[in-house]
Amino acid sequence: MRGLLSKRVGLMSAIVAMMLILAACGGNNNAASPSTSDSAKPTASSTASASNQPAERVKLKVLGHASWFKSGWDAVAKDAAAHGFDLEVEKVPDTDAGNDLIKTRFATKDTPDILLFFPGSIFSNMGPPADYFVKQEDQPWMDNFDKSAWVRALDEKENVNGDRGFYAAPYWGSNVSAVLYNKKVFESLNLQIPKTYADFLAVCEAIKKAGKIPVYYSGKDSWTLQLLPFDAASKKGYGELADKINKNQAKFTQYDNMKKGIETLVDLKNKGFINKTFLSDTYDNAEKALATGEAGMYHMGTWMMSDIVTKFQDNVNDIGAFIMPFDGDDTDILPVFAPYGMFVPKGKNQDAAQKFVNYFESIETQNLYFENEGGIPALNGVTKTKLTPAELDAKTLVDAGRKFANWQYGFDYDLSNFGVYLQDALVGNKTPDQVLAAMDKDFAKDAKTKKDPNFQ
Amino acid sequence: MNKLMRKNYTYGMLVPGLLLFLVLFITPSMGAFYYAFTDLTDFNFFSAKYVGWENFKTLFDTDGSMLALKNTIIFTVVTTVFKITIGLGLAVLLNMKLRTTLYLRTVFFFPVILSTVAVALAFSAIYHPTTGLLNQFLRLLGLDFLAQNWITDRGLVMYSISAVEVWKWTGIGMVLFLAGLQSIPQDAYESATIDGANAWQQFRSITLPLLLPSIKSVFFLSMIGGLKVFDIVIALTNGGPGKASTTLNYMVYEDFSKHFYGEGTAASLLLFLLILVTVAILNLFISRKEVEL
């Protein structure tokens, strides 16, 4: 009995000791909490212009999503410290909870000095932009920024207060949706980049004859199916149609280029130009297939190249990018996914924060940033980048004006089922028209739920 | 402490627990009967406006709602039938005195303790049309014609999901049946043997009637679990391909994730009523059979 008792006491003691140890270990672990912070350490290096340097050292609190602070930011943070900016970074999770945390901070007036957030969404998340943020239209960094190229992408949309305009400075690189292709496959079959849809089909036929997969669909990750229709739908001038759809003055069923994109998606499947197990295959499978030359082409954003750099280092130079030739003319363009936004909240530190933004957006600092980080710069004149050949192909086309920024964010209401409907179209459960009708239904339902008077 | 207090103080001890139950379960559950008829879209409960049957109309008008109902019924029927028959078969088998009885009981119960997500990931790989173990095994046996797109074929997907559910949860039924079997007095079998009854007659006339309370428990557990199916669907197919494997509870999840709280509440209320009515009718039917047997 006594032995049993001492065993029990021993066991209880061990449990209590373990709990205490775990509690002690967890007590100082900020990474597990909703927000974390760290400070940039000053270094001797300096590259930015002196005009953006504050007269005395200032401490700025920066708030943003955890995964937005990468190697580019680290390099800039060190350089900024040498310019008198001591940055205290507060990170929130990359989830809806993180967004809610940021919104709550603004609702309770507990604002940071710099906010990294999604441009174009300030009104719906916080309220009228002019109430919260400093407008960027007259800032010096705007000299290197082509505003017309980023309307509906980096600006705040018109709202009830009518204060639309650029409140965000670009943060991070942009990406484009393109046809990523394996150059070795093309070279081995003596294929040229297709200029028309007929050329594209001929290329597919040649790759198929060589026993490879012409176009890879990663349909298990349904979002990846959206890229091809997005490419077709993102025509210049279609922003106006998006506006009309937002106001219930037009429908997706009237969106001919969107329909063409869905038809093309199904057409390639019907012609046997895609992988047979496309509904079981994932984005990861697609990366491998394209990098190793098992597949010839894949409709995807250039963000995939950062994965290729990590996972298939030897194949990075084998991958290029071109515009999907739907109409075979200049109306075929690359949809551009805009960078995130760097905002200056109104408050006691707004002047110092604006100086930091001007420093960050200077060409020197942008060169430093993109030397250390992937993505295509949104500012003109940035010369130092670490772009892969595929991203450089895309950048060349973007620089030539063959682009349309953030078409997909031009819509105000729910389109989250689009990928699922595309799966339906590929298995023959919906026609392209039925996909568009289903999108109209979802869109109207969400608008009605959000009490949009145009949809009541 | 006077006599009245001594008699009633135990009820006082229940108050904290009851309060928690009232606040965290009863109140929200009762609230559903009201909020299903409102336009609730955020957690500002006081601003919700009464909209009559609008949420229910929208629900039935939603793309794939009838398919979700059909899928839920298929899943419930298939899994209930197989969980009972296989569970009962295993229980009868493992009630015998075999050298491996204890080992086999552990083996068959093991899937119950596995995480649904882990099981779904494993079966996602097993079901892969080209690299999956199942099709590779079939091809190895020369049964290529049986190799299928198990979870990407619209006509097969619900049955493939059901098979995973049966594999995972049959162990629970087996344990309940085993407990029932071990409570049946051996005298009944000895008397039947003396009377010349064969094994099948003994099973039909002794085992089955005396096991009916266990069968009833497994039946209702499986049926309610089937009607509420969600986790295995989202983990294995995410309702796909397209909306081919959407179920009622999956629709509730989609509604809530899109902030359609009124409609989501209406959907969960309908699901609750469906379960309540089905269980009540079947309970009445089985109880009558129980008396007859």
Automatic annotation (TrEMBL), chain A:
Residues making up the signal peptide according to the UniProt record: 1-31
Pfam family, one: SBP_bac_1
Family to which this protein belongs: Belongs to the bacterial solute-binding protein 1 family.
Region annotated Disordered, chain positions: 31-52
Descriptive protein name: Carbohydrate ABC transporter substrate-binding protein
Biological classification of the source: Bacteria, Bacillati, Bacillota, Bacilli, Bacillales
Species name: Cohnella nanjingensis
Gene3D superfamilies in the cross-refs: Periplasmic binding protein-like II
Key words, A-Z: Signal, Transport
